[in-house]
Amino acid sequence: MTELNVKPPPNHDAATNRDAANWAQPVDRLSAAGVAGATDDAVTGRRVSGPLQGFGQLWQKTFTVRLDGVDISPTDLIALWKERFPTFWPKGQRFYAPLSGIAPGEVALLEIEPLPGAPVRFSTGVLVLYADDESFTFMSPEGHILSAWITFSARRDGDVTVAQAQALERPSDPFDELAYMLGGNRQNDRFWEATLRNLAAAVGVASPAVDTQVVCIDRNRQWRYWRNVRNSATIRSARRTLTAPLRKLTGRG
Amino acid sequence: MDERQFGAEITEVPEEIRLRLSGDLNGRADEALASAYAQVAALGPRRVSLDFAHVGYINSTGIALVVRLLAQARRDGRAVRAIGLTEHYREIFRITRLSDFMEIVEGDAA
User: Which chain B residue lies closest to A23 (C-alpha atoms)?
Assistant: First the structure.
């Protein structure tokens, strides 16, 4: 028998319910009814799809930035991050926050520009799976390029507050996996590195340095999920772009 | 919020290895859980049971650690089941679709 730091719990039931309000309520299908401003809703009617439901290799990515010289607590930083989340994204990327803010069970819509100046923008979204004072987590819907969740958190390291984004992600289908291998993986890293730099700069860090740790958790591909391609946001968005002139002519916007 | 230190105890029972978890399962449990799974993997069981009966609190980072462990077990061809979850966390495992990949045993497992 091997034992690691075992400590008996004093009150199991009370403890397990103390976080109930931090989690999304169960839903069979997502609804983006609480979002305004997006031109396309590719989320309503979809189920969530986490890292276990994706096709490609499984990656864990951790991005951290130390807020040296800035007097801000982890809870204040997370409050700011939630409130101004879209403003920290890199230029050209759009995050349509739920009207009631980043809270458990809310859905946000996204429009992602895969490359600067690309003619196609991917329409997708996220479910706010979890939120508390020191962290919040998004989970992707079916059709998202990555079957993933990502947790944004803050903690103290000595006198310094450290902001972190940690993703667990698999490309959702074979085409997404190919795109990921051909540069999407690195592009995704740059996206979150830029986001953390923007966050740090917004609170007053002069020259923020983002540390990136990438680990491949599972090199296998889950071939039984190749059919995820039927929900592909990539294909859906490309089709919408190509048929936009026709929809404009016929008034089906 | 009072935090309770995470622990993991490995026991061998017939046909499986049981990982008895205790304390709070959050980001600070990362190394202990990874180390426990590495020890489990070295024993080479066909099935691992995660016993949550003594876990007080799981946040989303803690669930992510379970996802990672589950992915590693699937990679290794090892079945995973969860026992001792409260109704609240059985619900969370359904929301996050972890229950698609692991048997969730209600009540005490044999």
Answer: B92
